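Standup notes
- DV: blocked on the single-chain target, sequence here:
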Amino acid sequence: MKNEMYETDVCIIGGGPAGLAAALALRRTGLDVIVADAAHPPIDKACGEGIMPDGLAALSELGVGLDRQQGAPFTGIRLINGAQTVEAPFQRGAGLGIRRIALHQQLVDTAAHAGVRLLWKHRFKGLAPGQVLLDGQVVRCRWIVGADGQQSRTRYHAGLEPDRPGRVRFGMRQHFRIAPWSDFVEVHWSDCGEMYVTPVGQDEVCVAFLSSGRNLRFDHALPHFPALQLRLKKAIVEEPARGAVTSSRRLGRVQRRDVALIGEAAGSVDSITGEGLAISFRQAMALADAVCAGDLARYESAHRRIMRLPRAMAALMLSIDGRPRFRTRFFRAFQAQPEIFARMLAVHTGSLSPAEFGVGNGLSLGWHLLADRA
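- DV (later): unblocked, structure below
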């Protein structure tokens, strides 16, 4: 049987948020775009379901107007370690908690309205010069974008695999029918990992659990967070826990010839940062600029810049994972100077540059850690 043939400027493999964001960014430059994915929308994924303010700003630039009634705003971040609490509001705007399937459907609808051709239930089979091979179809194209996640087959076929595996952790997500008790995202810490609480509706919260332990179930982990367990005691569990893997993975290159990688296919930072979606949306715009210039090396440089700060933040946050004494000192240091945490959050969400944060704040935090140890 002869394969069906498509022709386009750009073929994107993977129709998750990263792939659809790339499609929208490229389509806005006037290019013809095809997105191919083996699944059918809406596509779900176990994640914290929070979009930070900079992620919402990037979505707006891509022409995506989210239906805020399908989610719930959050105005800051609160870190909780037993009796220790540190919090700060966002300096610019609010984030949005929204169910992953609702976000994905809105991205799908926006892409279809923009003229992106969407090939659902089309499994990726391989690459050939100037071609993407699908199950029963061939797509001729000038550019190929791999947006097919951590286990990217595009990355493998393009010869862009990482030299060594990164640090892997395990996540679970569960929804609870209960009115949010805070308009902050809460991050609860314990010796077994972290639990993130994100409001995603007027009477619904998403609780995501991250841990280095492969076999720790959600219901077994919850007693390690007694304050949160008490909050959820009378809440209705909406569905079984859904699992996922999160990793910190760095690639030597994210492009080669006519192939570029985006999202988790291009390397990843641990989900502890909460910046996965915002990173993908910024990458999408950088990729479109590079394709328009006909030079994917520009995307390579932009990708390094985009990933630099999230990698540093992930390294900082992971430094206290599984180290209770250091975590206690870490929280004490922030409690002694809460303005430092507020400024770090501002840098993390793009409302303050690292230069504006200044060396002095970092030295002050380090001094408090050392003084507490002494």
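- Follow-up: The chain has eleven helices and 21 strands.
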